[in-house]
């Protein structure tokens, strides 16, 4: 899992040392769930990270897939066909491999190790993502994450936009003992801000925790707090709740979050790799139908009608051979 690595963590800025005298209330663990496996798009394997979790605990997030980790043979890499979205944002973070993105508003490009594509569907967009032809021919390792961030009611129909966030733009910080590499992609962690521009106040960070090390960070009390284990074994919260690959931690209220790596790790996963997420809840009704996330069922049905009538636009002429949009796809 290369993502973005730093050979010497001691050169990085340090997070605050949250000792017992800070007065910050640490968040306890409310629940731990295990992501079931499935398939998405043209058949690439995923873990459904939020399966079984109430939307009220996830708000403003609605869906997340861990894509892979999978080692493709030549000819095997898969993606999605053209498909629509409305009413939310998709955040695609690639740790291994390469994905090619394009939409009918001119957004897109290649994202690879540690890059992030932030696509705001807003009022409606057609979109495709797939491995480039060279990767299809060669095969190779692929591992990524896709998060769906809900848009507030007042911004459901904003103009679509695309943010191409390169790995080197992420804010890089380490723990007081230099045992953790934290990549801040969006929001702020202890005053260190990531490059992602968000409609909904939120935080997204990827932490690599060395065996036996601990990450204890201040957390915005107005945001919820989630931790998803990409790989490895460790503990969540002061109560040291055991967690491992493919598990989601839902934290309760408070002002700091703690994750620790187990002393012994599996040989394949030498560190605890965890994505930290937080967002200010919208507390609005959610009506979710396939690729559309709206506030009412009527708005979802209207989105399907608009898509079928071509009001979400057309596939660019130079991409027509890859058309075949699928209105029921969830990944984008």
From TrEMBL:
Residues 45-149 form the Pirin N-terminal domain. Residues 205-312 form the Pirin C-terminal domain. Belongs to the pirin family. This is Pirin family protein.
């Amino acid at each position: 899992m290369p993502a973005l690595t730093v050979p010497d963590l001691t050169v990085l800025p340090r997070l605050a040392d949250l000792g017992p005298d800070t007065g910050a209330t640490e968040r306890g663990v409310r629940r731990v769930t295990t992501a079931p496996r499935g398939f998405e798009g043209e058949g690439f394997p995923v873990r459904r990270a939020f399966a079984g979790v109430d939307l009220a605990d996830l708000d403003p997030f609605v869906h997340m897939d861990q894509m892979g980790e999978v080692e493709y043979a030549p000819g095997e890499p898969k993606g999605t066909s053209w498909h629509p979205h409305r009413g939310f944002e998709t955040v695609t973070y690639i740790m291994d491999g390469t994905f090619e993105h394009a939409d009918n508003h001119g957004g897109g490009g290649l994202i690879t190790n540690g890059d992030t594509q932030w696509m705001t569907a807003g009022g409606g967009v057609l979109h495709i993502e797939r491995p480039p032809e060279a990767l299809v021919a060669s095969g190779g390792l692929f591992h990524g994450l896709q998060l769906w961030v809900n848009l507030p009611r007042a911004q459901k129909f904003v103009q679509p936009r695309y943010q191409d966030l390169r790995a080197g733009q992420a804010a890089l910080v380490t723990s007081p003992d230099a045992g953790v590499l934290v990549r801040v992609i969006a929001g702020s962690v202890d005053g260190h801000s990531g490059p992602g521009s968000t409609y909904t106040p939120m935080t997204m960070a990827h932490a690599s925790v060395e065996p036996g090390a601990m990450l204890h960070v201040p957390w915005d009390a107005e945001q919820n707090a989630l931790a998803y284990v990409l790989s490895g074994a460790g503990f969540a919260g002061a109560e040291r709740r055991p967690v491992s690959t493919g598990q989601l931690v839902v934290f309760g209220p408070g002002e700091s979050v703690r994750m620790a790596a187990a002393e012994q790790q599996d040989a394949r996963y030498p560190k605890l790799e965890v994505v930290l997420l937080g967002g200010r809840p919208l507390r609005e009704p959610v009506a979710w139908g396939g690729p559309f996330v709206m506030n009412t069922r009527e708005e979802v049905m209207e989105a399907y009608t608009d898509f079928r009538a071509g009001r979400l636009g057309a596939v660019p002429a130079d991409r027509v051979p890859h058309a075949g949009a699928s209105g029921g796809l969830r990944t984008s």
